[in-house]
Amino acid sequence: MNKLKEKFLKVIVLGHILSSFCVTAQSDEATLKTIYKTSLTNGMSYQWLDYLSNTIGGRLSGSTNAELAVQYTKNELEKLGLDKVWLQPVMVPKWVRGEKEMAYFLSNEELNRVNICALGGSVATPENGLKAKVIEVGSYEDLKTLGEEKIKGKIVFINRALQPDLINTFEAYGGCSVERYRGAAEAAKYGAVGTIVRSLSSRQDDYPHTGSMSYGDLPAEQRIPSAAISTNDAVKLSEALKNDKDLEFFFEMSCQQFDDVLSYNVIGEITGNEFPNEYIVVGGHLDSWDLGDGAHDDGAGVVQSMDVLRLLIESGIKPKHSIRVVLFMNEENGLRGGRKYAEIAKEKGEKHIFALESDAGGFTPRGFSFDGNDLMLKKIDTWRPLFKPYLIHFFEKGYSGADISPLKNDNILLAGLRPDSQRYFDHHHAANDTFEHVNKRELELGAATMTALVYLVDKYGMETSLEMKDIKD
User: Fold this and answer.
1) What torsion do the CA atoms of 155, 160, 161, 166 make, to the nearest 10 degrees?
2) Single pTM value for the model
3) Which residues 6+ apart lie within 8 Å of 370 measured at CB?
4) How far apart are CA 390 and CA 282, in angstroms?
5) Listing from the earlier edge strand, what are the strands of the sheet with 194-198?
6) Residue 375 exposure: Cα atoms within 13 Å on the Cβ side
7) Distance between CA 427 and CA 429 in Å, rounded?
8) If we measure between CA atoms, which residue out of 140, 137, 98 comes closest to residue 252?
9) In DSSP terms, which residues pair with 328 in a beta bridge?
10) Which of 469, 353, 345 is closest to 414 using CA atoms?
11) What is the bridge-based pairing of β-strands 110-113 and 116-118?
């Protein structure tokens, strides 16, 4: 009789567990539906992006526009009725492009105008421009083979295209970005007088794409100007060089580097009702390059991150953990904002359990890449079915994001929103990174997808390395 009773009780307990699981699953499904519906019918991300892009414009670190963006986003976050909104001071570099760049090459007495832009951090050309013969390479690694004798006094043309057969265009970009970043410093060691780098774009067009470059520890007097050339003009220059090895290239740039200036990260917080001292962060970078208005990079990530907190409030979700939106300053040419946030968090002993970054454009969301321990990833994977109705299928281990990377430790899960990337590098760091190239629905789907993941992490928490050790013990 006792055994029968015991068996009966086990069945009841199991039934309660299964029932509880079903209720929870249904509740999560319903909550995600509410989040997506709210974003698609009552979203704010597109409206915020319109102002950020079309009223303020490009937001280069240290510029007036960057400071206008700080004040605008702070004011908008205050309107949401968050528990806290504040500015976190950070010193940032100030580099100014100056007058529009000009370039041409002379081949067989014919003048061919080409589209270039200075790379971020480059020195200027001499006042009246720079003219020299050109030597073409596929990578700065080729400079070692050529040697100083063939390079000295010439402009090095680094003509390396993004690998077209890589489906992950960020992988293709990563394979080439080192040429832009280190090309000038390496070429200067062999006596080059300047560098021209093929734009890191996935299509053929006339837009030059800027981006950060560095001279490393090269003395100031040895630094040479560096510019990006459009993909169409890179092909044109390469073809001309095949027929005329002695052609001359001319370019003129007036960019300047100034002393660091004061700027800010913008932070808003909903304080958790159970674990107020444990933090979940969602963010993007407020600065952008100056050629376009930075709508995809990273205006989209900024407004999506802001809308995550608004969507939680609108959906009636009261978070257990404190949830912060952090709009980082200076990702593009210094990562000062991300480093400062992590530094202050460490000084205060703040415990961060999760950080999510959106910095891959406002295109249709496909999923997330995660950086964390195996137990965290296993837990995340159990939520995959909840996202399937929204065509979110990508849940993979990988890189999260630049601004949240300084937070990395054994006890935090980092994640990056992964939109469809096929068109991203058509616009990246170029004059066509503008508001009209962002689709409202795609942007709002991204905001909802981020909110859904934040909701689940907040509800169920994250296992830390210490908890994993306890389980193993």
Assistant:
1) -160
2) 0.91
3) 376, 377, 380, 395, 396, 397, 398, 400, 413, 414, 415
4) 20
5) 110-113, 102-107, 248-252, 130-137, 155-158, 194-198, 226-229, 116-118
6) 15
7) 6
8) 98
9) 285
10) 353
11) unpaired
Scored b (16 or more CB within 10 A) or e, 37-46 reads: ebbeeebbbb
Distance CA 298, CA 427 (A): 11
**DSSP states of 334-360:** T-HHHHHHHHHHHHHT-EEEEEEE--S
Please give the full DSSP string across 170-223, using - where no structure is assigned. HHHHHHHHHHHHHHHHHHHTTT-SEEEEE---SS-SS-----B---TT--GGG-
Segments in 43-154 forming alpha helices (H): 45-50, 64-79, 142-151
Judge whether 417 and 365 are in contact, CB under 8 Å: yes
For residue 362, the 8-state DSSP code is S
- The alpha carbon of residue 283 and the mean position of all alpha carbons in its chain are separated, in whole angstroms, by 10
Helix (H) or strand (E) segment spanning residue 323: strand 321-328
Tokens of 437: 């190239």
Decide if 231 contacts 198 (C-beta within 8 A).
Answer: yes
Q: Are 310 and 44 in contact (CB under 8 A)?
A: yes
Asked if residues 388 and 33 have their Cβ atoms less than 8 Å apart, the reply is no
CA distance 75 to 216: 38
- Active-site residue set: 331
Structure-token pair, residue 470: 């306890």
Two tokens, residue 54: 């079309």
Residue 190 CA: distances (Å) to CA of 102, 157, 194: 25, 14, 11
Would you give per-residue pLDDT tens digits along the chain (473 residues)?
Answer: 444 444 443 433 334 333 333 335 559 999 999 999 999 999 999 999 999 999 999 999 999 999 999 999 999 999 999 999 999 999 999 999 999 999 999 888 889 999 999 999 999 999 999 999 999 999 989 999 999 999 999 999 999 999 999 999 999 999 999 999 999 999 999 999 999 999 999 999 999 999 999 999 999 999 999 999 999 999 999 999 999 999 999 999 999 999 999 999 999 999 999 999 999 999 999 999 999 999 999 999 999 999 999 999 999 999 999 999 999 999 999 999 999 999 999 999 999 999 999 999 999 999 999 999 999 999 999 999 999 999 999 999 999 999 999 999 999 999 999 999 999 999 999 999 999 999 999 999 999 999 999 999 999 998 764 454 444 44
Share of the chain above pLDDT 90, in %: 90
Which two tokens mark 84? 């806290």
Backbone angles phi, psi at 132, to 5 degrees: -165, 165
